[in-house]
Amino acid sequence: MGVKWLANIDRFESMIAPVGAAFLARAAFQPGERVIDIGCGGGGTSIAIGAQVGPDGSVLGLDISPDLVAYATARARTAGAGNVSFAQADASVASPSGAPFDRLFSRFGSMFFAEPGRAFGNLKSLIRPGGRADLAVWAPARDNLWIAAMMGVLGRYLELPAPVLRAPGPFALDDPDYIRALLGGAGFVDIDIAAWDGMLQVGGAGSSPESAVAFVLEALSFGELLADAAPAVQSAVSGELIALFAQHVGPDGISMPARAWFVTACA
Q: What are the boundaries of each domain within the chain?
C-alpha cells in the first residue's frame, strides 16, 4: 500500500487536505514541543508540524513503508526542515530514539494494527507522562458518502466480502465507544472525541469524473475488489462511477461528504 500511496501521493494528499488542515489546527502544536508522527506517509504532516514547533522543537515521522520514509526524508531536506527526521518502523512495537515525546500525532495512521490493544499500549509508552496524543480516524463508512456510494455501485455487480468487525483497515476505529475502551485499556486518560464533517475532493483537487475513477481503481483498495472481475463488469462499474462523480462536480473537483473522528487523549 505504501508503494500505491507514493505513486499517487499528490492526489492522496490533496484529497484529504481539508480534514488534515482541520486536524492540525485542533492539535495546536506549540514551539519547542517534541513530536512523533505515526504513519507519517510522505511526510507532509511532519514537515507542517516541524514549522509549528520551530527550531527548538523536533518531529520524528514513523512509517512502516521504506519507500515512503525515503521520499519523506528527501522531501524534508528539500524543504529545509532541519528539525524533522524520519524512520521506518512498525509503530506497534517500535521504541525509537528520542522517546518519550511530548506529543503523538497520527492522521489516519492508527487504524491498521493487527493487535490494537498491544499497539496502543506501545504508543502510550512513546509519550511522556502527561503528554498528549492526537489521532484522526474515519467515522463509519455509512457516514462517508465518498466510500459508501462507491461500494454501493460495486455491490450491484459483485458479491462483496462480509465486513469483519474491527479488522485492520480504514474503518477499524469507527466506533467512539471502542476507541474509548481501547485507549482507556492502554492507560490513556482525558479522552475526547469530536466529529469533523466536511467535503473531500475524490482523486484530489480539480479531478474530473474520469480522473477520479482512474484514481479510485488504481490507488485505493476498492480497485483490488474489481481486479478479477470480467471486463464487462469492470467497464460497467467504471461507467457508473463516472456518472456518480458527475453528480458531485464542483469548483474544486469531485466534492463528496466525509466524516472523521478527532481523538485527543493524555498519557
A: 2-266
